[in-house]
Specification:
Helices cover 64% and strands 4% of the residues. By secondary structure, it is mostly helical. The chain is elongated. A two-stranded antiparallel sheet has the order 1-2. Strands 3-4 form a two-stranded parallel sheet. Among the domains are: 16-104, Fumarase/aspartase (N-terminal domain) (Fumarase C, Chain B, domain 1, Orthogonal Bundle); 124-132 and 156-194 and 222-357, Fumarase C, Chain A, domain 2 (Up-down Bundle); 366-429. It has 19 helices and six strands. The two termini are 33 Å apart. Bound molecules: arginine. The site of arginine (ARG) has 10 residues, from helix 6 and helix 12.
């Protein structure tokens, strides 16, 4: 048997069906680049520690560069994972006398955990950047619609007038928390398990801090059993992805209903729509519907991931191979969903007149009328609530006279005698006055929204800066590692 892994202990070869069942090659495409970086760092550390000599080091590095250039397709896909397939390719190139030394003091268990963390940290940075772009888009659509009236909803029933800006900032803030969570999780992802070997560390005189620094990690997953067996960082990140998708699905749902003839608040750009194969007139908001659906798929990935990890004994178990792809799938879906939402929001047409007209339908100003009555007359809010509730049962416009007649029945007094005027009633029933009055912090009043949007813009800028720092650190350590690789190759 020529299989470098199985030729010692094992005597029969798995058939194709077994290989398909056991191999992780398909999802290992995610960690091909990372695996080579990990190999670079480990090999250099082995040389620096005197575990391999300079010649072997540079030959291995050269071989790895060639594998990198040829790409994952050139690897033997009949191996059970990328790590062993890459090592066997290296041995093909530089011979076993040299290439067979690369895996000293290491196991695929610490290797795979390191590769996942390295790739995931870059993906998290990209996702945070995409989320910030979406937040920027929401900021600018909100800034253009500070005075765009719309009905606000509770129970999907018209509730009180608000503005589109107020509504969009609500979504923006939820996404802002998602970015904060990712930033926080990054500090637990960007730790190095490398050097834990199978689980018990190694008797070779390796230097874990050195590979940690070479790969741009901020620290170690110290305990070597914990390092190879824990996937809580995957659960944490996938839970965040699920939450992002839940947030996006709420927005997508609104885009779907807002596109109906019943709402007609918006029209999605044609590129995000589909049509019917039978009904020639149809314009369907498919991209938003799919996003809504994919939120369920990502929630499913989280469920698959946590149930795979449940009750696994220490330390490494092969089950973990089934855990990881759930996170990659969730990640890919979430990143594209963020981009789709950004595009839909950026290009949608907003029907401002219709939204404004609908902002008062369903007596949305009733709360303000009750509040006005309380402030003008001093009667308790609960009594005003009853009076306006009774008024809301009738059809047609509401005026002071009608208010007085209901109040007379309930209280035995006319509210006009207690300070309620036609002018105050008129203001209470005007949606713009409603919004202007709601100028507490976080409310929809125009000048409050303006300030709120400025605060959001500042926050996005600040977060973008923080993410740039993480990205620069990650990129510059990998660039430095590449430089070192070149230096070692040049020396030989
Ligand atoms: N493909 C494996 C995974 O994803 C790599 C580690 C394999 N380790 C082992 N002892 N078989 O977990």
């Amino acid at each position: 048997m020529s299989n470098i892994l199985r030729r010692g202990r094992l005597q029969s070869t798995p058939d194709e069906d077994i290989m398909k069942f056991t191999s992780s090659m398909k999802s290992d495409k995610w960690i091909f680049d990372a695996d080579i970086m990990v190999d670079f760092a480990h090999t250099i550390m082995l040389k620096e520690q005197g575990i391999i000599d300079e010649h072997d080091c540079s030959s291995i590095l050269k071989g790895l560069i060639r594998i990198r250039e040829e790409g994952i397709e050139q690897l033997d896909h009949s191996y059970e994972d990328i790590h062993i397939s890459l090592e066997s390719k290296l041995i093909d190139i530089v011979g076993e006398e040299v290439g067979g030394r690369m895996h000293s003091g290491r196991s695929r268990n610490d290797e795979v955990a390191t590769c996942i963390r390295l790739t995931l940290r870059e993906e998290m940075i990209a996702l945070m950047e995409e989320l910030n772009l979406l937040r920027r888009t929401l900021c600018s659509v909100a800034a253009d619609n500070i005075e765009t009236l719309m009905p606000g909803f509770t129970h999907l029933q018209h509730a009180q007038p608000t503005t589109l800006a107020h509504h969009l900032v609500a979504h923006m803030d939820a996404l802002g928390r998602d970015v904060e969570r990712l930033k926080d999780a990054y500090s637990r992802v960007n730790l190095s398990p490398l050097g834990a070997a199978a689980f018990a560390s190694t008797g070779f005189n390796i230097n874990r801090e050195r590979t940690m620094k070479l790969l741009g990690f901020d620290g170690l997953v110290e305990n070597s059993m914990d390092a190879v067996s824990s996937r809580d960082f995957l659960i944490e990140c996938t839970a965040m992805l699920a939450n992002i998708m839940i947030n996006l699905s709420k927005m997508a749902e609104e885009l779907v209903i807002w596109s109906t003839a019943e709402f007609a608040f918006i029209e999605l750009d044609d590129r995000y729509a589909s049509t019917s194969s039978i009904m020639p007139q149809k314009k369907n908001p498919d991209t938003a519907e799919l996003l809504r659906g994919k939120a369920g798929v990502v929630a499913g990935s989280l469920m698959a991931l946590i149930t795979t990890c449940k009750a696994l004994p220490l330390s490494y178990n092969r089950d973990l191979q089934e855990a990881t792809p759930n996170m990659w799938n969730a990640l890919e879906t979430t990143r594209s969903s963020v981009r789709m939402m950004d595009g839909m929001m950026r290009t949608m047409k907003i029907n401002r007149e219709i939204m404004a007209l609908k902002s008062v339908i369903g007596f949305t100003t009733a709360t303000e009328l009750a509040d006005t009555i309380v402030r003008a007359t001093g009667i308790p809010f609960r009594t005003a609530h009853q009076i306006v509730g009774i008024l809301s049962r009738r059809e047609g416009d509401i005026n002071l006279q009608q208010i007085d007649s209901v109040a007379d029945k309930i209280l035995g007094i006319k509210l006009s005698s207690k300070g309620l005027t036609e002018e105050l009633v008129g203001e209470a029933l005007d949606p713009i006055c409603n919004i202007k009055k709601r100028n507490v912090i976080g409310g929809p009043a125009f000048e409050e929204m303006e300030k709120a949007i400025i605060r959001r813009k500042d926050n996005i800028k600040h977060t973008e800066e923080e993410i740039r720092v993480l990205k620069n650190k990650s990129e510059s350590s990998l660039n430095m590692l590449m430089e070192l690789v070149k230096q070692y190759i040049a020396k030989a």
